[in-house]
Design goal:
Oligomer: single chain
Shape: globular
Helix content: under 10%
Order of helices and strands: EEEEEEEEEEE
Largest sheet: 7 strands, mixed
Structural class: mainly beta
């Protein structure tokens, strides 16, 4: 059974930092591309960052230079380090897994809420 469990969300002041974690199980983690998405009520879901099976990375323009995605294949974990957070980063952040061999398949976690507010 595929499971993706996010953690690390919370309340942070503008300019602060948070590290999100996603624990994966039930699939061959090393052969999956992993992504972080976020969604705020009333806005479309946005892909924030992605990391391929080969560790190549992608970042949305809005987070380049401030967010870092990484993965630990030995622990089946993916992380999102977020710095210099802005209020507009407030959203539910979800982890997505997609097999390199079949991009039509994807799995999602339930998400973790990040609130950036003073």
């Amino acid at each position: 059974q595929v499971q993706l469990v996010e953690s690390g969300g919370g309340l942070v002041q503008p300019g602060g930092s948070l590290r999100l974690s996603c624990a994966a199980s039930g699939f061959p983690f090393g052969t999956y591309a992993m992504s972080w998405y976020r969604q705020n009520p009333g806005r479309e879901r946005e892909q924030v960052a992605a990391i391929g099976a080969g560790a190549g990375t992608y970042y949305a323009d809005s987070v380049k230079g401030r967010f870092t995605i990484s993965r630990d294949n030995a622990k089946n974990m993916v992380y999102l380090q977020m710095t210099s957070l802005k209020p507009e980063a407030t959203a539910v952040y979800s982890c997505q897994a997609r097999p390199v061999s079949d991009p039509l398949v994807d799995y999602w976690g339930k998400g973790t809420l990040v609130t950036v507010s003073s």
